[in-house]
Amino acid sequence: MSEEVYKEYYRPIWRVFRKAHDHGECSCLGKDWWKCEGDCLTCEFHLGSSVRSLDSLITDETTLLDVIYDESPNIHTVLEERDLLIALFQKLETLDPEGKRICELVMQGKSERVIAEELNIPRNTYVYRKNKLFSILRESLKKYL
To answer: Which one of 28, 52, 99, 130 is at 20 to 30 Å from 11 when CA atoms are compared?
Structure first.
C-alpha cells in the first residue's frame, strides 16, 4: 500500500481521534493509540461525550434547561402587545387629519423643528398640539399600559 493511500484511509480516523482526544472523550493515547479505529461508540477507550442534553441533571432536581434564560417573549406578552397595537390603530383612525399627520411625522423620527416647518406652524404650537394629542392617546390606552 502506498503512503498516499494509507494517509487517505486514516485521515478521517485521525480527525475523529484528535477531536475526541481534544474534548476529553478518548483515553487511547500512549502505547495503544494505534488501536483507534475512529469509531468512538464501539471503542473500549471511549470515556463519554462532552455534549450535554438540556435534560441532563445539574443537581438532584435541576436540569440544564431550567437554568438557561430564554430571551424570547412569552405568549402573554405578545398577545398584550397585539391588543395594544390594535387599540392604538383604532384610536389613530378616529383622529382629525392634523393629528394623524403629527403621528406620522413623529413615527418617521423627524425633529420638532422639522415637523413644525412641515405643518407651517410655530414650534411651540406644534409642541402644545403634540402633547395634547399624546395625552388623549395615553388616556384612551391607559388600560393597556
So the answer is: 52
